[in-house]
Specification:
Elements: H1 2-22, E1 31-35, E2 69-73, H2 84-90, E3 95-100, H3 102-118, E4 124-127, E5 133-138, E6 143-149, E7 155-159, E8 162-166, H4 171-177, E9 182-185, E10 202-205, E11 208-210, H5 215-233, E12 240-243, H6 281-291, E13 297-299, H7 303-307, H8 334-347
Parallel strand pairs: 3-6, 3-9, 8-10, 9-12, 12-13
Antiparallel strand pairs: 1-2, 4-5, 5-6, 7-8, 10-11
This protein binds 2-acetamido-2-deoxy-beta-D-glucopyranose (NAG) (6 copies).
Protein name: (wild Malaysian banana) hypothetical protein
Organism: Musa acuminata subsp. malaccensis
GO molecular function, one term: O-acetyltransferase activity
Length: about 350
């Protein structure tokens, strides 16, 4: 009898938390948005890291309801409440690096604002040594948070024929990424760019050099190169690796049942039953790639929860573009939830 109870206790103490963390009953990424009066998590107007791209309140966004939604996972699990001081204690003496495009910058700025709100009088130092790397150090915790701009993750090299996108090499970024203890990667959006926004003239994969190719195929080749780099270069006992997942945009109103409209003027999230956009195809490529890796990489599967947030984009309330921006996200806003998920993974291991 004593043994039985012992076994049951063991089950409760050790097996239950595991099941709670990773079991099917706790899918953090399926759920819905609920209004929460305690939101937003900080006042973006007192965040010293605000950027004109994302600072919707400063650029005249009149409605603020979009700040008041909390992501509620379906089933039995909850996202833990964000505790910035706890996060900084966990990360004391460490370097956190966000690597990717402007959607990564979106998450980086939100991360800085969340930390700053927890310790508004903290001693900060910041640096931006060159165009691709910027950093902020919270001196009291010796915690450095960095953003490394990389649209494709793989290298772009200037050669005689022009700028060559090397689908099989991540040497340039790789040496810098290795200096971090926590890495958050993302790429996809720029793979679609053409014309003057395309940052390369040729693509090269091994001894094959081409003027262009199917962009989804090129993306998956680059992702495989990145995955090989992680598998061969990362020491999992010292470095945690995350992938941000694919952030959706809102230019096609049919996805949420409003033909012809964009995110402009939207003030409410979609309910799960009203959203018809379907999964983003590249997410399956990311998942498949991650499942083949030998090193653990945690995927922030943020696509679906973000798809429901047609209301969370800067739209015309930003300081850089004259066009309506339904690609990036207001900060504060949706990227704070992406960081709640990062927090849950780093501090609570879920
Ligand atoms: C979320 O869960 C519901 C109920 O199990 C399911 O019908 C739906 O397809 C799920 N949605 C996603 C995006 O996984
Ligand atoms: C701060 O952290 C770095 C590693 O990121 C370490 O090398 C350094 O010694 C630490 N400084 C202090 C004052 O603890
Ligand atoms: C930060 O400093 C201000 C002014 O010195 C002070 O009023 C405020 O209480 C401090 N906040 C915290 C959280 O220490
Ligand atoms: C940018 O900064 C990184 C890290 O400090 C350094 O390795 C790299 O050489 C710098 N690049 C340029 C062009 O200065
Ligand atoms: C590119 O490749 C993907 C994956 O193989 C395929 O689904 C898609 O139809 C292709 N696109 C074009 C324009 O050929
Ligand atoms: C990984 O890091 C741990 C802790 O610092 C160290 O003991 C181990 O030797 C490292 N492994 C490799 C393969 O470098």
């Amino acid at each position: 009898m004593g043994t039985m109870i012992g076994v049951m206790l063991l089950l409760v103490v050790f097996v239950m938390p595991l099941a709670w963390g990773v079991g099917a009953r706790c899918d953090l990424y399926n759920g819905s948005w609920v209004e929460d009066e305690s939101y937003p998590l900080y006042d973006s107007r007192s965040c010293p890291f605000g950027r004109k791209e994302f600072d919707c309140l400063r650029y005249g966004r009149p409605d603020t309801k979009y700040l008041k939604f909390r992501w509620e996972p379906a089933g039995t699990c909850n996202l833990p409440r964000f505790d910035g001081v706890k996060l900084m204690r966990t990360l004391r003496g460490k370097k956190v690096m966000f690597v990717g495009d402007s959607l990564t910058l979106n998450q980086y700025i939100s991360f800085l604002c969340l930390l700053h709100a927890a310790v508004p009088n903290a001693t900060l130092s910041s640096s931006s040594d060159n165009r691709s790397l910027s950093a902020v150090t919270f001196e009291d915790y010796n915690l450095t948070v960095m953003y490394y701009k990389s649209h494709y993750l793989v290298d772009i090299v200037k050669e005689n024929i022009g700028r060559v996108l090397k689908l099989d090499s991540v040497q340039i970024g790789g040496s810098i990424w290795l200096t971090a203890d926590v890495l958050v990667f993302n790429t996809w959006r720029w793979w679609l760019s053409t014309g003057s926004r395309q940052e390369w003239d040729y693509m090269q994969d091994g001894d094959r050099t081409v003027k262009d190719m199917n962009r989804t195929v090129a993306f998956s080749r680059a992702l495989a190169t990145w995955a090989n780099w992680v598998d061969s270069s990362i020491n999992s006992s010292t470095t945690r690796v995350f992938f941000q997942g694919i952030s959706p945009d809102h230019y096609r109103g049919t996805e949420w049942g409003e033909k012809g409209s964009t995110c402009e003027g939207e003030t409410d999230p979609s309910s799960p039953s009203a959203y018809h956009g379907g999964p983003i195809p590249q997410v399956a490529i990311v998942k498949q790639q991650l499942s083949k890796m030998s090193k653990p990489v945690y995927l922030f599967d943020i696509s679906y929860l973000s798809q429901l947030r047609k209301d969370a984009h800067p739209s015309k309330y930003n300081g850089v573009k004259f066009r309506v921006d339904c690609t990036h996200w207001c900060v504060g806003g949706l990227p704070d939830t992406w960081n709640l998920l990062l927090y849950a993974a780093l501090v609570h291991s879920i």
